[in-house]
Each structure stands twice: as C-alpha cells, then as structure tokens.
Amino acid sequence: MQGGLIMLKKVASLLITTALTATMLVGCGGSTTSTNNGSSNNSNSSSSNVSSSSDNGSTSSTSGTSNSVKGKTDLADANFDTSYTPKKDSYKIYCTYKNIHAWYDAIKCGIDAAVADLAEKGVKVDYEWYGPAQPDAVDQVNSIETAIGQGWDLIAVDVNQPELTGEAINNAVAKGIPVAVFGTSDVKDCDRAFFVGNADPYGDGCALAKAVCEKMGGKGKIAILSGTIGAAAHEERLRGFKDTIAKYPDMEIVDEQRDNDAVEKAISITESWLQAYPDLGGILCNNMSNPVGACQAVADAGKSGQIVIGGMDHDLRALNALKDGTLYVAQVQNCYDMGYKLIYNAIKTIDGEKVEESTAVGSTSVFASDADKFINMLYGEAK
Description:
- By secondary structure, this protein is of the alpha/beta class.
- It contains eleven helices and 17 strands.
- It has helices spanning 2-29, 103-120, 137-148, 162-174, 201-215, 232-245, 263-276, 290-300, 316-324, 335-350, 371-379; strands at residues 32-35, 38-44, 48-49, 52-54, 60-61, 90-96, 124-131, 154-157, 179-183, 194-197, 219-225, 250-257, 280-285, 308-312, 329-333, 358-360, 363-366.
- Strands 3-2-7-6-8-9-10-16 form an eight-stranded mixed sheet, sandwiched between helices. A six-stranded mixed sheet has the order 12-11-13-14-15-17, with helices on both faces.
C-alpha cells in the first residue's frame, strides 16, 4: 500500500511539473501588443509573433503567466542617468539570447520599460527578441549573420559560447553594425561595443557554495547540478562551487551531473541521488531551472529542510521553496537592469556616443526571511 501511494505521488508530481513547464514556454513565446511609439517582435525557432500597434501609450504582453516577472527588485539602479536626448526619432535593435526560458522575462521587462520611457520622449524603438527552443551556439551565430543583412541599427547578444560567437560579432561590426553583449557572459576579445550584465558568475557560485557549506557546518556530502555544458556562466558558477568547497576539507562532492537547464531532468537526477546517498547533506544548483527540480524532488521525498539547497535566480517556484524552507539560499541577479541599461546604452552607441565599456548590474543572496519581499517585487504579490 505504501509503495502504491509513493508511486501515485510521483505521477502527480510529474504531471504538475509538465504543466508548469508548458505554461512557462507559452509565457516566453507568446504575442506582444505594443504602442505606435515602440514595438517588439518575439520569435523562436518554431514560430514568429508579429506585434500589433495601438495608440494607448502603453506596452503590455498578452502572454503573462503566474511565473512571468512583472517588476524589478531593489537591485535596480535608481540613480541611472536617463537624461540623454536621442539624436533620431526611431531605432531598430535585434536581440538574440541563449534559449527560450522564463529567466529572460525579467530582462525583457527592463527592455520594455526603457522602450516605454523613450516613447514618452517621442522616440520609437522597435526590437526583435529571438531565442531558440534549446541552447544552440550555431543557431545563435546563424541568427547574427542573418540579422546583418536586415537593416538593424544594433545587434544585442546574450552569448551562448564565446569562442563561437566572437567571430560572428566581429563580422557584424566589420559590416558597420555595432554589437552589444548582455546577460552573464561577456566576450572581451572581440569588437563588441559594450557589455551590460552580471559580470561575476564565478562570484555567484562562490557565494552560494559558501552559504550552503556553512549551513552544513563545513562537513558532509554534497552533490552538484551543473547546468548546460559549454554555457559560460554555468561553467563559471561551477568553478566557483568547486573552488569554495575545496576550502572545506570535510566536505565531499559525491556526484556532479548536467541537467541541461531542464526542471524534469533536475528532478530525475535528484531523485536518483536521494536513493544512492541517503545521507546527502546538500545540493548546489547553477541555473534557474535546476533548483526548482531539486526542491521538488526533495519535497516529494519528505526531506524539506533536511538537505541544504542553494541555487540561482528568481523562478517563482524557487522563491516559494525558499519561503517554505526547502530552498536555503537563492542568488538573484539584477535582470531588470540588464534590459533597461542595454536599451539606453544601445541608443547612445547607435548615435555615436561613448558609453561605459562594461556595466555590472550585480546580484544578491536571498534567504527565507526575504522571500516574500522578492516575490512581491517581481510578481506583484506574495503567492
């Protein structure tokens, strides 16, 4: 009887996760309604959603879900200078990012806010927002090459694999199109105009690992969900994990597995760890998806609070797990400013003005005591 109940619980958990994932993908790939002073075109590898215009003076998305970011955190720079007067009355910016994922909703939130602010100044900003269904460095290079011939004023890239993307950036610049880099991976050895993003994923990895190791008392068995191979920010956080754990001689890394930024895979891997290592003390997670999967598997096993979990970013499910004690610490990045400052710096760059070569937006460690605060800031109300 007990075995039957456990099996039913796992089936229910899988169904819930599948539904949540489907909802998240719909939220990332839906249509956008925009003003006549600025518009966006969301597209992915399987569909393209064209903007429609109105004159109501606001920009809104029709594709929001309960896991779609609606606001910004207090990490956003309240003193950022927006007094610049653009030299033209319209701009076209092509944005390409790693893959369709809810993490990018927070960046797009910042982009849309900047577009709306500029619209109030009578400046129209049209932009394309493109990401493939799965991380694909070759697809990103191809999308940049395609954009070169489409008349964009600037190309903005959230880099998948720097060693591949750098050459495509140089090709665009050589043909007279400035390129900006945003997100969590800069490409310094190329001709990009500027970078805006979190410049220290290694530091984020160190901060998470230190918090988890200290909570574990500096001893015990720990496992690592290591994201997507080759993704620069994932690799840097992973390096930060290992370098920090090495400072605790009584800590043992029992396993490390790639989850490919997929909740379902993170659940499966974590479930196998709970079987193989009944005395597992901690789990470190280096992207936004894997703490959701790790927390769900641990909660389903009835071990919430018994295994110390640390992971990245602001997924609503992760913040709720932080609130209930299943997740111990989340390292939340200032995604809003990645988008907001990208647009303002892009406009200046297109106009031939100098901008800061690298703009770091930062991150912060969030614990249970601040979970409601971050839920309210990002999603509107505690859920």
